[in-house]
Amino acid sequence: MMMRFHDRHGTHVRLSPSKTSATRVKSFANAVVFSHRPLAFGETFLFEIEEQEKDWSGHVRCGITTHNPSSIKSVPPYLLPDMAQMGRTWVFAIKSTMQKPLGDEQLKDYGGHNFQRQEAGDKDDNPVFCGEKAREGKLKPTDVGSRIGVKVSPTGELYFFVNGIKFGPCALDVPVDRDLYVAVDVYGTTKRVQIIQCGVPPLLDLCCENIRKCVTKQEDLESLPITASLKKYIATF
What we know:
The structure is a single chain. The chain is α+β, with helices and mostly antiparallel strands. It has helices spanning 79-83, 132-136, 203-214, 218-222, 228-234, and strands at 13-15, 21-24, 32-34, 45-52, 61-65, 89-93, 114-115, 120-123, 147-152, 158-162, 165-172, 181-185, 190-196. The chain has two domains: 13-196, SPRY domain (Jelly Rolls); 203-235. Strands 1, 2, 4, 7, 8, 9, 10, 11 and 13 form a nine-stranded antiparallel beta sheet that branches. Strands 3-12-5-6 form a four-stranded antiparallel beta sheet. One of its GO terms (molecular function) is ubiquitin protein ligase activity.
């Protein structure tokens, strides 16, 4: 199912007719938006920064929450710290360096969650995760054209993708038995973001994620009657 932004959002946000683009129309705050539905199993939420406003400081912030946007009486003006302090929310500020694109504000452990310092991983093979401008040359995570993705593993690990590079796990023990909505704060210099449709995960990946959810120990994975190459692939989930 196509991903869109939720009708419930900050007071300074204007959505496009398709509800796939969110623009902050004034000030630097009150521009929190949510996914219109929870993340599907194995799904990555991906968006691109489309416009900036240089007069402000700070940049886009994003993450996930178990709060259903429809049930939020008043959308908080900021993801950090306001939404994070509501609990059951895992959010990061995006920084301007690829060496450390996720800020440390959330490591103060708002809401008692198990946040982790993120590490850079392998580059994702999916070309959708890395936009045209990033492929052409060096692009800061906060620049126009930068693409940022959010995904939760079957075992409750939160990962980010920044211009095709995977970071994480950035949080542990995210409750995968709950509906998880994506939250984006179109904050500071970030003025407009556009959802990039990632499509449906391949059947192989869905099967592997289901196996990994049931078989969490490496020794149990090794005992499965499948090929060594498939075991190695399942271990990446």
